[in-house]
Design goal:
- Helix 19 links the parallel strand 7 and strand 8.
- The chain has a 6-stranded mixed beta sheet, with helices on both faces.
- It starts with 12 loop residues before the first helix and ends with a helix.
- The longest helix has 49 residues.
- The protein is built from 23 helices and 10 strands.
- With 623 residues, the chain is an alpha/beta fold.
- The N terminus and C terminus are likely disordered.
- The radius of gyration is 35 Å and the shape is elongated.
- 62% of the residues lie in helices and 9% in strands.
């Protein structure tokens, strides 16, 4: 579509956007509910003003009763009625304001969490793995909750405490200007002390949010990684990062509190109602004994005077909540503004399943290449294994096929179509993956298997579960395939891996990326997983990340990566005969810990070859 020229007298959109100041993140996020929040603020302000009227009416009644004049019902009852009516109106308006603010906040939370979920689902996987899932948890849960506190509670509280002193002061100045000025002194002193205590709070709140984010990330890592630590006999090490994060937060927060303790405590004391009342009582007594005012005129100050400075005792903590909400809005906005993997403007569908990488380079930070000049072909129905030392780029290269990242340079094509031109839904129908770190949904066993094909029948689900060697375990669960995972039932690592294999079998993608799926499995689970992988591998194009070389010696092609470059490729026997890097890796593994027997090694190599176990799936599962 051709862009339309700007109308006469109107600047182009881009220029207008550049000239227009960017609104604060908090205001931008609140825009969908701005009108309802404004109405709630108006109702709360009116409720606060009405709430002052009963105190003024009571002070007038008290003044009349203490003036030495006989009580006159015709003069008192209107004041009593005014106090009751205004108190009722304040109650109704305050309740309506709170209800409206909570409804608006509830809609905003739902909208924000939906936006975050949609946006996070389109982010490159490296954006999430690089910064940790704690960032996502903090934004979706903690930061949205901080906005709830701000919009549903703090906003109305601040309006209430700031609106009430205005009519009180106006009334007190009409009674006695000198005592009214005395009532203002604690307020001014409290403002000064609070401003001193809050100096530098913006930077502190930023660090506070960062510290909470580090705790969230460490907690997620602790919960998800403890099994791995324990499997290597290092259970005591599993919580070290979490402890360091909590200790760092405690040190930071303690230092912050110590630096503001004296001034913040003094600020709270000088505006405390008891202190203000004592001040007004003492000075009021002096005024009365000196004949400067009457006892009747002192009564309004004793009733209403403490309410003049009282807001400062509430505003201080509320300022902290406002800053926390602002910081939360900044983090949410930053996550929502994070660039997503671009969707193609013109969709291209692959013609076949041949995978081709040409002059592929990739960098996480835009400076240092993790992969450089990689050329690779994955022919349909073949097995290609990636081997190499740690950090050589194996996982990065494999992650390009399911488009967890986009290449920095070069192209990755599937069936002649650039991956960047293939719609995501079409890509994931053709490219599947089974990774070491399995993530299961809090859903039934059947729904977890159906993730790639929600319309699959129960018979298809069971057939794939049998081939993946997870059917028997599913039938042992309380509700069989309907059992919800993550509540009363938790699967072991090997069981979760077999369930993910059943998921991949049901999806039936012709191209598969396999990480070392048995890295943390016990021998029994490993054998079952290998059986499932044998079924999964049959007839498909595989790219396998291999750490134990005996598992891939029957592969059609073995590719050796070093420092992000392909240094060798070929079949197992040819690479051994060449005496290069692969032969050195093979010899190092054989010397460090040879596999038990040739038969065991052959069994482990089964996932990368065609196995008759796949026959169970092929019948009736083709779509």
């Amino acid at each position: 579509m051709k862009s339309q020229p700007p109308e006469p007298g109107r600047a182009p959109d881009a220029a207008t956007a550049d000239a227009r100041p960017t609104p604060p993140p908090l205001r931008t996020l609140a825009e969908p509910v701005r009108e309802r929040l404004a109405l709630a603020v108006g109702l709360q302000a009116f409720a606060a003003l009405c709430g002052v009227v009963p105190f003024i009416a009571v002070s007038r009644i008290a003044g009349r009763l203490t003036a030495g004049v006989p009580a006159d019902g015709s003069a008192l009852w209107p004041l009593v009625t005014l106090a009751c009516v205004s108190g009722l109106v304040a109650l109704v308006c305050g309740t309506a304001a709170g209800t409206l603010a909570h409804i608006a906040d509830n809609d905003l939370q739902l909208s924000l969490r939906r936006r975050l979920a949609r946006h996070i689902g389109r982010l490159p996987l490296g954006r999430l793995t690089g910064r940790g899932t704690g960032e996502v948890k903090q934004a979706v849960q903690d930061d949205v909750s901080a906005l709830h506190t701000l919009f549903a509670h703090t906003l109305l509280d601040v309006v209430s405490v700031l609106a009430a002193p205005v009519p009180i002061l106006v009334y007190l100045f009409t009674v006695d200007r000198r005592l009214a000025l005395v009532s203002v002194v604690p307020l001014l002193l409290g403002v000064f002390l609070f401003s001193r205590a809050m100096a530098g709070a913006a930077a502190q709140m930023t660090e506070f949010g960062a510290a909470v984010g580090r705790i969230s990330a460490a907690a997620v890592e602790f919960a998800s990684g403890i099994a791995v630590f324990k499997s290597f006999g290092r259970g005591g090490k599993a919580h070290e990062r979490f402890v360091r994060a909590t200790e760092g937060f405690a040190d930071f927060f303690s230092g912050w509190v110590r630096s503001t303790l004296l001034t913040s405590t003094a600020a709270i004391l000088v505006v405390a109602p008891a202190v203000v009342l004592l001040l007004l009582t003492v000075l009021g007594a002096v005024f009365v004994t000196q004949g400067w005012t009457t006892g009747a005129e002192l009564v309004p100050f004793l009733l209403l005077g403490p309410a003049v400075a009282a807001p400062m005792g509430v505003v201080g903590p509320r300022i902290q909540q406002i800053r926390a909400g602002q910081a939360a809005a900044v983090r949410i906005t930053e996550l929502l503004d994070a660039p997503t993997l671009p969707e193609p403007t013109t969709a291209v569908l692959p013609d076949g399943h041949h995978v081709c990488l040409r002059e592929v380079s990739f960098s996480y930070d835009g400076n240092t290449d993790v992969l450089s000049g990689v050329d690779l072909d994955l022919a349909p129905g073949t097995v290609t294994a990636l081997v190499g030392p740690s950090g050589s780029g194996k996982s990065t290269l494999a992650s390009l096929l399911p488009r967890f990242h986009d290449v920095t340079a070069g192209t990755v094509t599937l069936g002649g179509a650039d991956l960047r031109d293939i719609p995501a839904t079409e890509l994931y129908r053709r490219v599947g993956f089974v990774l070491q770190d399995v993530r299961l949904l809090r859903a039934s066993v059947a729904d977890n298997i159906r993730l790639g094909r929600p319309d699959a029948t129960d018979e298809e689900v069971e057939r794939c579960a049998r081939a993946a060697r997870i059917h028997d375990r599913a039938m042992e669960l309380p509700d069989g395939y309907a059992t919800e995972i993550g509540t009363a039932v938790t699967l072991s690592g090997g069981e979760a891996q077999r369930l993910s294999i059943a998921r991949a079998l049901l999806a039936d993608a012709p191209v598969l990326v396999l990480d070392e799926a048995t890295a943390y499995a016990d021998p029994h689970s490993e054998a079952l997983i290998q059986d499932g992988l044998s079924a999964l591998a049959a007839g498909r194009t595989l790219l396998v990340i291999a750490h134990r070389l005996p598992t891939i010696r029957t592969a059609d092609r073995i590719v050796v990566l070093e420092d992000g470059r392909v240094t060798e490729q070929g079949r197992h026997a040819d690479l051994l005969a060449a005496g290069g890097r692969y032969a050195a890796l093979w010899e190092a593994q054989r010397t460090a810990g040879p596999d038990e027997t040739d038969g065991a090694a052959h069994h482990r190599s089964a996932p990368v070859g065609a196995d008759h176990a796949a026959d169970d799936i092929r019948e009736g599962s083709a779509r």
